[in-house]
Amino acid sequence: MSSVLKLVAKQVRSHPALIPLFIFIGGGVTMSVTYLCRLALKNPDVSWDRKNNPEPWNKLEHNQQYKLFTVNMDYSKLKKDRPDF
Amino acid sequence: MAHPSQLGFQDAASPLMEELLHFHDHALMIVFLISAFVLYIIVAMITSKLTDKLILDSQEIEVIWTVLPAMGSSQIAILSLRILYLMDEINDPHLTIKAMGHQWYWSYEYTDYQDLGFDSYMVPTQDLTPGQFRLLEADHRMVIPVESPIRVLISAEDVLHSWAVPSLGVKVDAIPGRLNQTTFIVNRPGILYGQCSEICGANHSFMPIVIEAVPLPHFENWTSLMMAEYT
Q1: Complex prediction ipTM
Q2: Whole domain around residue A80: which residue ranges?
Q3: Pick from A21, A69, A73: which is nearest to B66 by CB?
Q4: Model pTM?
Q5: Which of B17, B49, B101, B202 has CA atoms 20 to 30 A from the CA of B84?
C-alpha cells in the first residue's frame, strides 16, 4: 500500500497537474460513497434487523426531516394530520 | 399552450416552473459558452500556420482544463440539486383532487366537496367552436383556485397514462394500482393545457388535460353548481 503511495507521490511531483485531478475526482468519489452509506444506514425504507426493527418506515414522525437539505420547507412547523395506530 | 413554431418552454404558470425556466436558461448559457469556446479553438487550430512538433505535455494547461470544467459543472450541479429538492416540497395543500386516467379520458374527483366527480373527454374536432384549440380542448375542465397550493393524486384505471401540464412543470405517471402525488400553485388565472404523456392505446393523443384557474369566489360558485349536477 505504501509503495503505491510512494509511486503516486513521485508521479505527482513530476506532474503537478495531477493534484487538481485528485482533488475533484476524490471529492466526487467521497461524496458518492458517503451518500450511498447514508442511504444504506439511515434511509427509513431500509431494514437491516428484521427481528428488532422490522419496519423502520413506520417510525417516521410527521415532522421528521430525512432529506439532506430543504430550500423552503420548515419540517418543525408541520402539523400532525394523520391518525395514530 | 404552445404556439406554432415555438422552440422554448411555455410561459410559466407556477413558481416551480419559473424556477425550472431560470435553471434551464442558466445551464443552457453554460453549454453555449462551452460550445462557442470549443468552436473557436477548432477554427483557430485549423487556420493557424504555427506548428511545434516537440510539445509533449504541459502542466499549466492541464490544471486549467481540469479546474475550469469542474467549476462549470459544479455550478450546474448545485443549482440542479437545489431545484430537485425544491420540487419535492409539499406546502400544506388547500385542496386535494384525484385525477384518474382511463382509456381514453381523464376523470377528476373533488372529494373535499362531497363526492364531486366528473369525466373530461376531448372535444372532437368537428364539434369545436371558433377560437377553441384542436385536440386540446375538453368538455369539462379541472377548475382550481389561483394562488392556493393544490395537491393532485394521480392514478389510472386501466393502463399507464401520464398527467402532464407543461406550463406548470408537472408530469406525473398514472399507474394502475398506485397513487402518485404532486403539488403545485397556479400564479395567475387562466386556462392551462396538457396532454396524456404515456402511450395508452389508440386514442392516446386525444385525451387532453385542461386546467382552469379562477379566483376563489368563482371556484366556490363552480363547485356549488357542479355539486348540484354531479353528486
Answers
A1: 0.80
A2: 49-85
A3: A21
A4: 0.87
A5: B101
